[in-house]
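re the bet — no i am not wrong, look at it urself. input seq straight from the record:
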Amino acid sequence: MKLYYSPGACSLASHITLREVGATFDLEKVDVKQKRTERDADFWAINPKGYVPALALDSGEVLTEGAAILQYIADQHPQAGLAPANGGLERARLQEQLNFVAAELHKAFSPLFNPAASESEKTAANERVGQKLDVVEKQLSDGRSFLLGEDFSVADAYLFVVAGWTKHLGIALDNWPRVAAFQQRIGARESVQTAMKAEGLAA
C-alpha cells in the first residue's frame, strides 16, 4: 500500500491509523497546490479529485475519502479493534462520528485556510468552528476517554487531526477543556508520535 499525503492535512489520520494497525506501507508526499507528488507524478492521475488522502492498494485500486480509507484500514486489521463490526449500532455510531468530523468540523475550518477569504468570512468560520467544538466538548462531558467510549477508534484519529488545526491557526482551546485533554491524550500515542515525526511535524 501507498498513502499519498500532505503534512498535517486530514491524511494524517489515515497515516496514524496505518501506524496503529502495524501495516506495511509506503508514503508519498503531495504538493496539493501544484498537484504533483514528491516523485513528480501527476496527482490528478492518481486521484482525479485532486486532494489527499489517497490510498493506493496492492491490487492497483486507489481508495479516496478519509472516512472510507479509515474504515477500510480498520476492517483489514480487525485484530487492532479500531472499528466495531459492520452491521451493528456501534458501527453506525462510528460512522456518525466520522461524518460529523468530515461534514461539520472539517468543513468549518476550510475558510480559515483560504487566503482569499475575507475577514468577515474568517470571523464567521471561527464561530462555526467554536460551535462544532461545543458539540465535541458536550460528547466528552460524560468522562469518556474516546468518542465511542473507552476504546480508541479511527474516529479519534480523525478528530485529533482536525481539532489539531486549532493550534496551527492560533485558536486556544481554553473554552473546550475536554477537547484539549483529548488532544493531549491522543497526541501521546506512539502511533501519533511516529506519524507526526515522519511528516516532519512537531509532536
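see?? The domain at 2-80+191-199 is CATH 3.40.30.10 (Glutaredoxin). told u. also The two ends are 25 Å apart (CA to CA). so pay up
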